[in-house]
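User: I'm new to structure prediction. If I give you an amino acid sequence, what do you actually give back? Let's try with this one:
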Amino acid sequence: MQPSSDRVLSSYITSLVSRIPLVFTVYSIMVSSVSVMEGDSVTLKTNVLTNQQYKINWYYKGYHIAQINRYQSKICTDVQCKERFGDRLSLGSQSGSLIITNTRNTDSGEYTLEIISIDGSISEKSFDVSVIDSGLPVVPVLVLSPVLVPVICAAAAGGLLVAGGIVCYKKFKQTRNRRRRDDHHQENDVIEALPLNQRAETA
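Assistant: Good question. You get back a string of structure tokens that encode the predicted 3D arrangement of the chain. For your 203 residues, that looks like this:
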């Protein structure tokens, strides 16, 4: 009994598929936040080596701005990129890290790193860059140890008690002095009301 034509065709297709190498593309995305003072330089690191990758691409808000492989690099190949960054972009020759010099407020935004490995896998990493205006004052942030918080609170409470005690003592002295002045005035009024011969005896 000969196999049917459908079985023969199915076996043939299976044989062809088994001979075709399958390439799986793996995507992994990471996000990092980076802050830089206006006018300073910032480096967005790839943490890889260019000679171990097929290609490294950089994008700014979806626009391609730089590329590097084992043989050459390209930066700002279109007019829009040149108008925005000029000659302020460069790439690390060994790592492909993106370097932005003399940063401006207009450089803030999302930068996307795309790494295409030799085996065909693709990984992406996004950098949320914030350029801080150099004219704004820098407010220092005090980070307290949890051990010091009760001590500081107790000291503050003690300070408030001492301050409150001082205020109360001053109020007491003012009231006491006022009463003394009133008593002194009352004594003078009594003496003046006495006859002259009794004033001398009282004095």
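You can read the tokens as a compact description of the fold. Here is one thing that stands out. The helical segments are 5-19, 79-85, 148-193, 196-202.
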